[in-house]
Amino acid sequence: MRVAGIDIGTLTCRLLVADVKLPDVFKEINADRRILRLGEGVDQHKRLSEEAMDRVVGVLKEWKVCMAKFEVDALAIVATSAVRESENQQEFLLRVKQETGWDIEILTGEEEARRTLLGIRFGLPEAITDLLGLDIGGGSTECILARKGQSPKVISLDLGVVRLLERVFHHDPPTRDDLQHAETCIDAQLAKVVQAFGAVSNIPLVGTAGTVTTLAAMAQRLTHYDRTRVHNYELPLATVKGLEKDLLGKTGVERLKMPGLEPGREYVIVAGTVILRRIMETFGCDTCLVSDYGLREGLLVHVAMENVEDGQRL
Fold first, then answer.
1. Which of 10, 22, 144, 185 is most deeply packed, by most CB within 10 A?
2. How far apart are CA 92 and CA 98, in angstroms?
3. 10 Å Cβ neighbour count for 244?
4. Per-residue pLDDT of the chain (314 residues; tens, 9 = 90+)
5. What are residue 119's phi and psi, to 5 degrees?
6. How far is the C-alpha of 294 from the C-alpha of 111, rounded, in Å?
7. Are residue 12 and residue 97 in the same domain, yes or no?
8. How far apart are the two ends of the chain, measured CA to CA in Å?
9. How many domains does the chain have?
10. What is the rounded CA–CA span in Å between residue 296 and residue 213?
């Protein structure tokens, strides 16, 4: 079946149209990604701004016209941290409904993690059965412990690149105090993961979403994003530390000159890199396997699973 999924995130909105046939067919038809900063200021004001909603609704209307060309059988539209935490979420949902006709599902952090896992697993090498999944988003970070034959453990942290940037990174470039404050905030959140998951060793860390894929592109000095070179790339901790040092020593404008860094991420990439580095250090991970499959792909797999008629499940 031809399925479309839209992920309305705190920093980025993503569209994917693909032909999906379980258990192993996933053919991308069309994809788009826009950095729209819907969650800008939400951590402080608990409200979506009119300007941010305008940006997102405008792109959704554009995508609605685009999808009419592809004869989609099913559509899933979800919103994550920024919308679920905003006091005026109903205003946003009503605007989208009035201007596009679409209904949006607001995912809990735990459900976001579960659907992200569906996407990650679909893109993994067959040999990997157990994993520690990581989705560093704009407003939250989802951690997933998945072991063969066991129900996954998931936890959503009050920690994301936009949230951390707005809370602690007050200078450009960041100061030592900014970095220490960031590490304190990150470690307080990671203590919840350690308590929930217990001892985790000899299990691969698999990271998805913009921070991790961007760092993979930067590590390879890609002048244009190449999914084939980013997906399943092994990102060493030493490389993450080297990129972090380089990023911390530059202003946002200077970072834009670094190969692999797309405009719109020149500030949040610092927060994301520190989050990834502390997670790798906390769980003793020397490398992070990068997945270009995540929540967006998981939405499509979830829809396909719901429409399987013979009871087969992924």
1. 10
2. 10
3. 19
4. 899 999 999 989 999 999 988 877 788 899 999 999 898 888 788 899 999 999 999 999 999 998 888 988 889 999 998 999 899 999 999 999 999 999 999 999 889 988 999 999 888 888 888 999 999 988 889 999 998 888 899 998 988 999 899 889 999 999 999 999 999 999 999 999 998 888 777 889 999 988 999 999 999 999 888 989 999 999 999 999 999 999 999 999 999 999 999 999 999 999 999 999 999 999 999 999 999 999 989 999 898 888 765 444 43
5. -70, -45
6. 13
7. yes
8. 15
9. 2
10. 14
Q: Could you tell me which residues are beta bridge partners of residue 31?
A: 16
Candidates 283, 271, 213, 220; CA nearest to 244 is: 271
Spatial contact of 156 and 108, defined as CB atoms under 8 Å apart: yes
DSSP symbol at 151: P
Q: Where are the beta strands (DSSP E) in the chain?
A: 2-8, 12-21, 25-35, 74-79, 105-106, 131-136, 141-146, 153-157, 205-208, 234-236, 287-291
- 180 inside domain: yes
Q: What is the structure's pLDDT at 96? A: 95
Question: Hey, what are 305's tokens?
Answer: 């699973």
Q: Which residues pair with 131 in a beta bridge?
A: 146
Residue 194 domain boundaries: 125-292
Q: Which residues pair with 74 in a beta bridge?
A: 3
Is the CB of residue 112 less than 8 Å from the CB of residue 168?
no
Considering the domain architecture, whether residues 20 and 160 belong to the same structural domain is answered as no
Q: Phi and psi of 65, rounded to 5°?
A: -65, -40
- C-alpha 39 chain-centroid distance: 14
248 belongs to a structural domain = yes
Token reading at 2: 């031809």
Backbone angles phi, psi at 268, to 5 degrees: -70, -20
Domain edge (last residue) among 43, 75, 109: 109
Q: Where does 234-313 have alpha helices with state H?
A: 237-248, 252-255, 268-282, 295-306
Are residue 136 and residue 276 in the same domain, yes or no? yes
